[in-house]
Amino acid sequence: MTTLSDDALIAQVTGGDADAFTVLYRRYERPVFAVLLRLGGQRALAEEWLQEAFTRVWLAAGSHDAARGRVKPWIYAIALNTARSDLARKRHRMPHVSLDGAGIDLPDAKGSEPSLSARLDAAKHASALASALVELPDYMREVVVLRCSRELSFAEIAEVTGTPQGTLKSRFHRAVLALRARLGRRDRGGR
Amino acid sequence: MTHPSPGSLLELHFGEAPVHAREALAVHLKECTECASFARELHGIERGLASGPDDAPPRDGLERVLAQVTVRPARARRAEWLLAVVPSALALVAGAWAVRTGGERLTALGLVPGASLGIVSPELLGLSLAALGLVVVGALVTLALAPVLILESHGRS
Question: What is the DSSP-derived secondary structure letter of residue A61?
Fold first, then answer.
């Protein structure tokens, strides 16, 4: 069953097949959880969203129309909507999760403005980035997190979010500039 | 110097740039410090968001989802709804039957003068009897609970 396509699995889930659902869950739990973790910035929150999202996948399996889109973007859209709804309800920012250990190894900056890697040492970079990321507007954070997960192309993110690719790339660019500014301020404040 | 769009740099970074454009973009990055800086920051952000040790999903995640969906499976929701509606409808029919039968019996006994003359219908008589019964049962329950409620309110104060 593990070799079945997503479409075949969803068809079986529609019939109440828990084994097919298990395969689908195992296939997507890790990448979807990583995205939710970065969107929410808190592990407990991401776990809650993951459970809610896959519960919705089970309940809505019958409504998935293969002609209108593939299963992967559909699952990510459910996960994203789960996170959006909850964030909108709670209306507050969560403290970031520690990403210490995700070190970086970047070439030195040559531009006029120091690069992120030059301003922050490797140990603090991921943690500072996670903090800066949760301060971004949702629409910016979403595209950065979804694309950097390397699970979805810009075309697929457009499908997930219902936003044109050009707009997504523009948001990503603005997010990079915003992160640069926030991390720069943080660095200057820390000295 | 003409710079490529940020979108083109993003496409190059994520491997989505058209094959014919890749070489020109790579050459530009070698010559342009501004675009190279942007590319380095993209790299830094992506490395910063890379999977870490805290990324493992919950071990019991699947069990929790399955427990939730098997408690309320999609197809069972209609059955649950029917389970609530069918007994309620049966109770309503039985109640109507009891009211009508009770009214007819009272009429037959001739205890209510208006009923034997046809002024008061058996259904109305049955409903009145049911309402009276409800009031009596309510009064008895209130009287039975009164001491408990009084003692509880004294305990709180």
Answer: G
Which pair of tokens denotes residue B154?
Answer: 């004294």
Q: Are residues A128 and A149 located together in one domain of the fold?
A: yes
Query: How does pLDDT run across B102-115, given as a tens digit for each residue?
Result: 878 877 777 777 76
CA neighbor of A79 nearest in space, from B15, B65, B75:
B65
The reported pLDDT for the residue numbered A113 is 52
Identify which of A40, A28, A34, A190 has the alpha carbon closest to the alpha carbon of residue A119: A190
Whether residue A113 sits in one domain with residue A66 = no
Check CB contact of A115 with chain B, cutoff 8 Å: yes
* Same domain flag for A44 and A111: no
Range of the domain at A111: 99-191
Q: Are residues A17 and A86 in the same domain?
A: yes
The CA distance from B86 to the nearest CA of chain A, in Å, is 25
Q: Which of A69, A97, A125 is the last residue of a domain?
A: A97
Q: Which of A44, A68, A97 is the last residue of a domain?
A: A97
Decide if pLDDT at A189 tops 80: no
pLDDT of residue A114: 52
8 Å CB contact between B97 and B126: no
How many distinct helices (H) and strands (E) make up chain A?
A: 9, 0
B48 vs A22, A102, A149, B20, CA distance in Å?
31, 6, 11, 30
Do A182 and A130 reside in the same domain of the chain?
yes
Q: Alpha-carbon distance B139 to B146, whole Å?
A: 10
pLDDT band at A110 (very low <50, low <70, confident <90, very high): very low
The ipTM is: 0.76
Q: CA-to-CA distance for B39 and A170, rounded, in angstroms?
A: 15
Shared domain for A104 and A78, answered yes or no, is no
- Best B3, B9, B54, B59 residue to mutate vs chain A (most A CBs within 10 Å): B54
Separation in Å, CA of B85 to nearest CA in chain A: 23
- Whether residue A91 sits in one domain with residue A180: no
Domain residue extents for chain B: 6-50, 80-156
Contact A51, B65 (CB under 8 A): yes
